[in-house]
Amino acid sequence: MLLCEVCFLIYFQHINGTSSIKELSEVELLQASLWSQTSSCWSERMMNFVRVNGTQLMLDGKPFYVNGWNSYWLMDQAVEDYSWPRVLEMFQIGENMGLSVCRSWAFNDGAYHALQVSLGRFNERVFKALDKVVVEARRHGIRLLLSLVNNLDAFGGKSQYVRWAWEEGISLTSSNDSFFFDPAIRSYFKVYLKTILTRKNHLTGIEYRDDPAIFAWELINEPACLSDATGDTLQDWLEEMAAYVKSIDKKHLLTVGFEGFYGPASPPERLSMNPSEFYGRTGADFIRNSKISNIDFTSVHIYPDQWLKKANFSEKMKYISKWVSIHIEDCDTELKKPVLFTEFGLSSDHKDYDPAKRHIFYKSIYDAVHNSAKNNGAGGGALIWQFLARGMEKYNDDFGIFPDSRQPMYELIKHQSCRIAEVNYKQDILKTPYKDICQKN
Predict the structure, then answer these.
(1) Residue 211 shares a structural domain with residue 119
(2) Who contacts 184 (Cβ-Cβ below 8 Å, separation ≥6)?
(3) For position 172, what pLDDT does the model report?
(4) Do 38 and 52 lie in a common domain?
């Protein structure tokens, strides 16, 4: 029996809760064997860490531009046996589309299927689900961008830390922004960070900080500290937490997770690019925050329907074109770091929604990234928000996509994967799986 087959037999033994390989069904034994023959398994698939060299992501000494997607729900759906196939389906779709990075939540604080059930206490069953997600990503040759806490309330977020600390009498205030400035809450968040970074995967024995299947860590999804518009509080928090992560994990890249708004430290011509004056007072500052030495690449989100509620589609497209180009320019010229557009979407709930408009909008993002990549620029990639598997209609928001090879959107995303692969591999693309993925592109 091949080593790869043995690895997957052990993998099936773990995920099915059997005490020995003999207890696996004939179907499971056959599936493990087929997996080992049709796709490189985690034990044999060679993966190296992604690095940064100036404005470019690097892999194996060559520029590495990204095409990816968001499925924030992977850990949540990996907990129960009935929903686990959705995770398998999603990674298979990602591989079929030539996608290289998936962004997902590595947090769930106090909610259903909570990873952290209270301050510093973790649910091993949910951790094992995250272990499975990491293994499955690697099996499909996909890397994970894992976010570590939410600024929003979904899945607990910073407000859950504040509630816990307030209830235990260790917090100075019940303000949500005390997550950023309260020393006790900062300490508890560091407990979480250390627990995640040093987690030993129960399937592979590899600590997360040593696993190249993890592309990078994201400190916080869409941070904002409205109580301090100067940005000093959030800047101090980011500096402290980035340094702490790097003190434990020096192998992985680190990003912040913000939307790209400019703050008071930015020049007036950049502040004027915010969707409105409000966004310059959120406490976040794209340029200032991105200059933190321990931040390896920066991020930007793109939601014209949420930001420009009164604009027509043409006005939104004009604005977004500038929004994307100035952030790439900032990273090319001032920050000297890559930028990933880690979320973008056009709402299906908008009164003027048209799938054709969504196609035009998404293509414009892909074209901007591809043009930057062709010129060795800082535009490191784009991750669409969001993909869902069959049976997940209740998880859908107004941006969700159920990938279907018969859809024009599917072909658009796959085509971008092939364009990016041509930039990454050039003539060597014929030696990669993209030879088959892109044969019709």
Answers:
(1) yes
(2) 165, 170, 171, 172
(3) 74
(4) no
Looking at the annotation, which residues are catalytic?
222, 343
What's the N-to-C CA distance of the chain in angstroms?
A: 38
Burial 298-321 (b: 16+ CB within 10 A, else e): bbbbbbbbebeeeeebeebeebbe
The pLDDT score that the predictor gives to residue 38 is 39
Phi, psi for 128 (deg, rounded to 5): -65, -30
- Mean per-residue pLDDT over the chain, rounded: 91
Element holding 10 (H helix, E strand): helix 3-16
Alpha-carbon span 184 to 275, nearest angstrom: 35
Residue 230 CA to residue 9 CA, distance in Å, equals 55
Q: Do 15 and 104 share a structural domain?
A: no
Q: What is the pTM of this model?
A: 0.91
What is the total count of domains within the chain? 2
Q: pLDDT tens digit string along 125-142?
A: 999 999 999 999 999 999
What is the b/e burial string over 356-371, where b = at least 16 CB atoms within 10 angstroms of the residue's CB?
Answer: ebbbebbebbbebbbe
Hey, which residues does 106 pair with through a beta bridge? none
Structure tokens at 376: 């060795």
**pLDDT surpasses 90 at 19:** no
Q: What stretch of H or E contains 217? A: strand 214-218
Are 106 and 196 spatial neighbours (Cβ–Cβ below 8 Å)? yes
User: Could you tell me if 193 and 241 are in contact, meaning their C-beta atoms sit under 8 angstroms apart?
Assistant: yes
Where does the pLDDT of residue 45 fall: very low under 50, low under 70, confident under 90, or very high at 90 and above?
Answer: low
Q: Residue 321 sits in which domain range?
A: 48-437
Same-domain check for residues 266 and 234: yes
Angstrom distance (rounded) from CA 237 to CA 144: 24
Nearest Cα neighbor of 97 from 105, 87, 89, 106 is 89
pLDDT digits (tens, 9 = 90+) for 224-253: 999 999 999 999 999 999 999 999 999 999
137-173 burial, b at 16+ Cβ within 10 Å, e below that, comes to bbbbbbbbbbbbbbbeeebbbbbbbbbbbbeeeebee
User: Which secondary structure element, helix H or strand E, spans residue 62, and what is its range?
Assistant: strand 62-63
The verdict on 18 and 152 lying in the same domain is: no
